[in-house]
Amino acid sequence: MKIGCIGTGAMGGAIMRAVCKKYDVSQIKITDKNTEMGKAFASETGATFVNCNKEILDCDYIFLAVKPQFLCDVFDEIKNDISSDSVIISMAAGVKIEKLEKFAPKARFIRMMPNVCAQIGQAMTAITYGQNISEEEAKTAQEILSSAGKVEIVPEKLMDCVTAVSGSGPAFVFMFIEAMADAAVRCGMPRAQAYTYAAQTVYGSAGMVLESGKHPAVLKDMVCSPAGTTIEGVAALEKNNFRNAVIEAVTSACQKSISLGK
């Protein structure tokens, strides 16, 4: 199986680094309009750097790590040479399969939405696919992407929501960790230690949600002792509309994803 990727930026690079660790790098090709970046990636991973996008097209699975605004330029170059035997896996936020097929009528597409946590093998990735993709091909794509973390197949109607929750979500979590650390510093903790305590707390709390299967509200109640410190903090969060702010952030990101696809 040959795997290719057009684009080795933050997201494409993170996914492909994970893929290169699991699959035979002699069968992996990458390209990037930033030649220096692409060659550096190839040197780091052992993948083969090629000079133009067309040289990727003999691969069985081709990742398209291109932002929505650059799709047209890329497809203008490759659309006439894409083989129907290849599967194109697009990371472009908001761009539906129907629109991708208009860019390149010969191509067969899977859409994916990963997140930056692929850099440490802990991504939450969703994929969706059209009728011209077989279940076996979808499962193979899922297996390839599992190199970078957890992968689920979802209906396409959920992809904008996925983009908002797991695609954009790490930024919201990073802001929360930073705010927790700032508060710790305010209360007297050294900065480096504050980041460790805040980040490990988020990491462990997320693990409890996933491993226990309990509702987050149940887990929250476990920590809130009567007249204790935690319920005081929860009350302060509620007073400042914490949950509503998070809901608005995710909703805004979802709406932006929808607009990108138009």
Structure description:
With 262 residues, the protein is α/β, with parallel strands linked by helices. Helix content is 52%, strand content 13%. It contains eleven helices and eight strands. The chain has an eight-stranded mixed sheet, with helices on both faces. It is elongated. The two termini are 34 Å apart.
Q: What are its keywords?
A:
8-stranded mixed beta sheet; alpha/beta; 52% helix; 11 helices; 262 residues
Describe the structure concisely.
The protein contains eleven helices and eight strands. The chain is an alpha/beta fold and 262 residues long. It has an eight-stranded mixed beta sheet, with helices on both faces.
Share of helix among residues? Answer: 40-55%
General shape:
elongated
Residue windows where pLDDT falls under 50 for at least 5 positions:
none
Q: Got a strand count? A: 8
Which quaternary structure do these chains form? single chain
Q: Would you tell me the overall average pLDDT?
A: 95
Main beta sheet, described? 8 strands, mixed
Number of helix segments? 11
Task: Please report the distance between the alpha carbons of the first and last residues.
Answer: 34 Å
Q: Nearest-angstrom radius of gyration?
A: 21 Å
Percentage of β-strand residues: 5-15%
Can you list the strand order of the major beta sheet?
A: 3-2-1-4-5-6-7-8
Structural class: alpha/beta
Series of secondary-structure elements, N-terminal to C-terminal: EHEHEEHEHEEHEHHHHHH
How are the SSEs placed, and which strands pair?
Elements: E1 3-6, H1 10-22, E2 28-31, H2 35-45, E3 48-49, E4 61-64, H3 71-78, E5 87-90, H4 97-103, E6 109-113, E7 123-129, H5 135-145, E8 149-153, H6 159-167, H7 169-186, H8 191-212, H9 216-223, H10 229-239, H11 242-260
Parallel strand pairs: 1-2, 1-4, 2-3, 4-5, 5-6, 7-8
Antiparallel strand pairs: 6-7
Helix pairs in contact: 6-11, 7-8
